[in-house]
Structure of Alpha/beta hydrolase:
Amino acid sequence: MSDYATFQQVSARGLEVKFQSGGHSGVLVVVFSQVRIPSGKFGLERLFAKTQHACVFVNDTRSQWYLNGEGTIDRAIDEAVAREKPERIIYYGASMGAYGALITGLRRQDGEIFAFSPELGLGTAGTQSAAYLEVAAPDQAELLALLSGSLRHPVHLFFGLFDWVDTSGYLAVRTLPSCDNRKCYGVAGPHALHDQLYSLNIVRQLIKTFQRDASKLLADRHLLAAPSVEDCEAFVQLGVTLAGGETIQFTNEPRLVSDNPGYALLKAEHLALQGRPLEGAQLLQDWHHILQNDAVMRTTPKRWRKSFLVRASELYLSSSNRRKAREALIECARHFPIDERMMQLAAQLELDVPATP
């Protein structure tokens, strides 16, 4: 699309905007970048370069979740609308970008929204936004009120139910009064859900025309999940408790420990806090084998799956079981790309990590 017109704007607030004219799809997509996209770059730009859509790319380089940036964002959208005269507007984003898409689309009420893994309760302990926000986080109730109101265009919310923060958002939305234009999808995946759906070609099918049935695309890959409210609440409760540095006593252990790998990650940390790191490490190793052999779970991103073995190795090492720690790390290196965390762990174990095949 290098022959298409482009222009770029930079605001003093740290918002960067790039416009890219499209072909003849009649669609203008406003794409909000995820966190940690450097200045001058835009998240998902390469993905949408393969479409015929006109695009407005927005990046919050200060990672403030697009809060207080309405003026810059609206000017960019209004200029693009004046240039392209689109038949449809789509607001699109993942993680931090999902929040930007949500708050902008709900405020403007002039286009359809696709939000993958948005954090609804910004600044909450244990969330990604808590590590970045320097401005006051809005009350989650305000966003939920907008989602409960009259929606002129469909709002598609995708939550990875192997992540407790996503599950918290899923619970909050599912308990709202019913609304025909609000679609909430519980997906068998982690927070990096957009990456997972991209690798399965679901994202590309979805964005080609934005007319495919998202629920059918997910169901065809057996990715739709509908856990009970009780299981979701137990998952979220453990996440919130651990984020606060506390332990929790269970009277009845939720079955999520055998159904949800995300719960197993939390459970391993909980066991470590209770002085039982060997049990946590073994739990994570067991789940590694499940993830490798389950047709649905092995579609999750590699960087998430490898965290099970890396953390298992760390927990074994904390228990002075260097042999098991080495075995877990060697197995990890056989299956996944080596990163800095693995290299640091290998150094502690005096181990030469083999190259990934």
Summary: Confidence is low (pLDDT under 50) at residues 1-5. The first helix runs from residue 45 to 49. Residues 30 and 41 are 15 Å apart (CA to CA). The chain has 15 helices and eight strands.
